[in-house]
Amino acid sequence: MSTAAVRGAVEVYLDLLSQPCRALHILLNCAKIPHKVRTVALRKGENRSPHFTKLNPMQKVPVMVDNGFILTESVAILKYLATKYDVPEHWYPRQPEKRARVDEYTAWHHSNTRPHSAKVFILEVLLPTQSGSPVDSMRLTRALSELDDTLDKLETMFLRRQPFLCGDDITVADLLAVCELMQPLGGDRDVLHNHPPLQRWRTRVQSAVGDAFNQAHAVLYAIRDRRKAKL
């Protein structure tokens, strides 16, 4: 529930074309944490402004400011908010074994789901848009193969036969994963089309977060629709 008028609200600096920003946006709205969104348009270089660079010298989004406390990494921000604020415990469980499952996935995420999903989007959408050159089909084929291997592991190591990645309830791990796996949709590519268990998982995630899902992904849908209109 974004509210720019609430005193003491958490400030978040976001660009919703960024996958981790979308995960954070969904949590804030689902958990009804009072917050103010400060949009940082990466395509306009606003992340390199002096003000933003002072907040995060790495010049990356998201960034959170909570009563002067600045935090710059998406996973840390999600866990901080779920720990500090009165949110349903399922987002980041207190019980040690359940929490460890979320930590296990988020540690794996940065070397697997995130880079492999992002690479497909970069090769199919971002680089051709920026350079005007055609898609490098050989590199894209390799990237899709790497992603498919990651999706297999995601199914067998984490999802298995349970409804969500870390158990019976949705957690911040599901938000991080689903936002990455949605990213190639900007090129009208559904990377889960050969993975029915992950398709069903995505549907459960969408159902669990409701309208917050499509609100966070509106920018990505717009990119997809513009590309389709040009074809």
From TrEMBL:
Enzyme class: transferase
Domain GST N-terminal: 8-89
Catalytic reaction equation(s): RX + glutathione = an S-substituted glutathione + a halide anion + H(+)
GO cellular component, one term: cytoplasm
Major subcellular location class: cytoplasm
Protein EC: 2.5.1.18
Keywords: Cytoplasm, Transferase
One of the record's GO molecular function terms: glutathione transferase activity
Location(s), subcellular: Cytoplasm
Domain GST C-terminal residue range list: 95-231
Record-level GO BP terms: glutathione metabolic process
Subunit annotation: Homodimer.
Family membership: Belongs to the GST superfamily. Theta family.
Name of the protein in question: glutathione transferase
